[in-house]
Amino acid sequence: MKLYTHPWSNHAARVHILLNELGLDYQAHAVELMEENLKPEYLQMNPNGKVPVLDDNSFIIWESHAILRYISDKYDDGKYYPNNKQRYLVDQWLDWNHTRLNVEAITINFNNVVLGEEGDQQAVTAAKEEALNLLTILDQALSGKNFICDEFSIADISLFTSVVYLNENKVDFSQLRNVQRWFDAINQRASVKAPLEGIKEAY
């Protein structure tokens, strides 16, 4: 199994975390962005030229949430992606993160880290405000629960990697006690250590 990745990518970090949780053997290949990902052989795997891409015995799949679902279905027993109706709640939070929270996290990170001094700080300010609004929704959903769907799942993994971007970009959510508790708990899991080190290299 080979994972095409980049250390700064929170999308790729999600896949690393799940693979680590499951204890699966895999080869991580760091893609040289703006070079390797634009070559025909890479675009043949993923026409979007993005990371992550997973090659599992010549089965190629891209998009981080699709990869998380695939790995869970093939290698897990329902622990991280339940086989009962809880699966639909996991999907709900995966979709919410993809269309809402992660959009703001990416906007902030792209302008601050990728563009740097040329970044649009008005866009950053607006995204931080909306991110806090969305984190309030997450905080309410985490009330009385350790994880978003009761047990640790790929929804928590996805949400966590978005909140990592927010945290590294100085979005202060310490007043949201449930989010802070949840974030701190996941931050202690052995599976997240190496992926987080890669992301932190960007700051």
Summarize this, please?
Pfam families: GST_C, GST_N. InterPro entries: Glutathione-S-Trfase_C-like, Glutathione-S-Trfase_C_sf, Glutathione_S-Trfase, Glutathione_S-Trfase_N, GST_C, Thioredoxin-like_sf. With 203 residues, this protein is an alpha+beta fold.
- Strand percentage lies at 5-15%
Number of strands: 4
Structural class: alpha+beta
Task: Evaluate the radius of gyration.
Answer: 17 Å
Which consecutive residue ranges, at least 5 long each, have pLDDT under 50?
Answer: none
Tally of contiguous helical segments:
8
Characterization of this structure:
- This protein has 203 residues and is of the alpha+beta class.
- The protein folds into two domains: 88 residues, Glutaredoxin (3-Layer(aba) Sandwich); 105 residues, Glutathione S-transferase Yfyf (Class Pi), Chain A, domain 2, CATH 1.20.1050.10.
- It has eight helices and four strands.
- The chain has a four-stranded mixed β-sheet, covered by helices on one side.
- The two termini are 30 Å apart.
- The model has no long low-confidence stretch (mean pLDDT 97).
